[in-house]
User: What shape does this take?
Amino acid sequence: MNPVGGVRPLTPEQLLIIADEVAAVHRVRVRDHALLAGAAAVTSASYLGIPVHGDVRSAAAGLSEAIIRLAPLDGANEVLADAAAEVLRRINAR
Assistant: This one.
């Protein structure tokens, strides 16, 4: 996958793995898989080929906000938002 704007995005599958781990630890569940996929899409969003997020910091903030606003889990969405943003920063630090 080619990074958009230099940011390596999270795939819906990667975000699901993170969500499953958060769900297991916090004893919650994914309440809406479409919302989870939508949150992942924030990291690769673009208009006419122009990325919405020009850097990793912006993409991580957008991902975190999307998770909190969409609330794809039935609890612990703030934990998921923090964990997903950190994973995104780490995969882009390589």
About this structure: The beta strands are 46-47, 50-51. Helices lie at 12-26, 33-41, 56-70, 77-92. The first strand starts at residue 46 and ends at 47.
